[in-house]
């Protein structure tokens, strides 16, 4: 056997979709388990925090380099929720897939990510952070408002498109009951695009770039839900636009310092692309998740994707100095 892969996962429960829309389905977890076993690894599926931390800490120190945790933990509410596994693995000197805790925490905060990237010249629409006061910082309509720290289009419907102060008051009063703060943006009326960036720092490669087609004018939580997933990808992106987005995507990955994989979303206005958000813990279903669909457009298989992501996790463990403290302390 090559080693042991722990699938650390929250498993989607259709009874509580508002809390766990981002979590992977049991079908996806089982499919990943089978494919990773076929790649030559032992696989363990763990989903309880105490179980995960107990298993990781009990791995003999000399064996930890041969284990790897696939980070599928999404949690809910906490701004640190996508960083739980990377931080724990780094502290215990255990390899893991995907980006570090700092990248996970930053990208989960859409506002801070946009502030950071805009300072380096990545184009974004005008944007503001809205807290519990609910004050409208501008009256240049139309605007678009959404939860600042959620993925999978949680909290998004056509009501989030704001045309007046009346729309604003109605929508934000409802959203601020559920979410701590909101991101307000100048509304971009063009098509949405998505792209995957694979690799570790200094060796990034960009997936084919696709328009995201969906019914209606808003990429809502109904479109993105597992029960009614109706988005489609259109790869007929003009070369000039594709070249521009490839350049931006590599720059974003370098600035963030992403590892393994990250999905980036852009939107057009007057045929110019503007950065929307980054997802450092994207879904991995080969049925309804965008990143594997982008990967497979290259002609490579889902199995090759999983194998590549594991290789990148081990490579990061061997080469990145963020693990050095734990390696030294665990000698």
TrEMBL record:
Superkingdom of this protein's organism: Bacteria
Residue ranges constituting the ATP-grasp domain according to the UniProt record: 114-311
Keyword Ligase: yes
GO MF entry, a single one: ATP binding
Keyword ATP-binding: yes
InterPro entries noted in UniProt: ATP-grasp, ATP_grasp_subdomain_1, Dala_Dala_lig_C
Keyword field: ATP-binding, Ligase, Nucleotide-binding
Family recorded in the similarity comment: Belongs to the D-alanine--D-alanine ligase family.
Protein name: D-alanine--D-alanine ligase
């Amino acid at each position: 056997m090559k080693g042991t892969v722990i699938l650390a996962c929250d498993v989607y429960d259709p009874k509580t979709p508002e809390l766990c829309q981002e979590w992977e389905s049991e079908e996806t977890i089982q499919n990943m388990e089978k494919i990773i076993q076929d790649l030559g690894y032992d696989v363990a599926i763990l989903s309880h925090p105490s179980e995960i931390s107990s298993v990781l800490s009990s791995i003999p120190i000399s064996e930890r380099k041969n284990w790897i945790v696939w980070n599928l933990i999404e949690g809910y509410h906490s701004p640190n929720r996508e960083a739980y596994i990377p931080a724990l693995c780094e502290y215990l000197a255990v390899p893991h897939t995907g980006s570090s805790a700092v990248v996970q925490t930053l990208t989960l905060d859409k506002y801070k990510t946009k502030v950071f990237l805009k300072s380096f010249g990545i184009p974004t629409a005008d944007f503001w952070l809205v807290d519990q006061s609910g004050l409208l910082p501008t009256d240049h309509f139309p605007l678009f408002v959404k939860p600042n720290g959620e993925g999978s289009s949680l909290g998004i419907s056509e009501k989030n498109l704001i045309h007046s102060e009346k729309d604003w008051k109605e929508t934000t009063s409802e959203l601020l009951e559920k979410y701590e703060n909101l991101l307000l943006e100048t509304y971009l009326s063009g098509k949405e695009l998505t792209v995957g960036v694979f690799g570790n720092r200094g060796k990034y490669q960009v997936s084919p770039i696709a328009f995201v087609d969906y019914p209606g004018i808003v990429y809502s939580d109904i479109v993105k839900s597992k029960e009614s997933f109706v988005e489609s990808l259109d790869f007929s992106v003009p070369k000039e636009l594709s070249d521009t987005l490839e350049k931006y995507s590599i720059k974003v990955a370098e600035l963030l310092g992403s590892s393994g994989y990250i999905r980036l979303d852009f939107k057009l206005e007057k045929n110019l692309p503007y950065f929307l958000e980054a997802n450092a813990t994207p879904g991995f279903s080969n049925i309804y998740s965008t990143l594997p669909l982008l990967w497979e457009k290259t002609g490579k298989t889902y199995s090759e994707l999983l194998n590549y992501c594991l290789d990148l996790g081990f490579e990061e463990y061997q080469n990145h100095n963020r693990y050095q403290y734990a390696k030294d302390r665990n000698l």
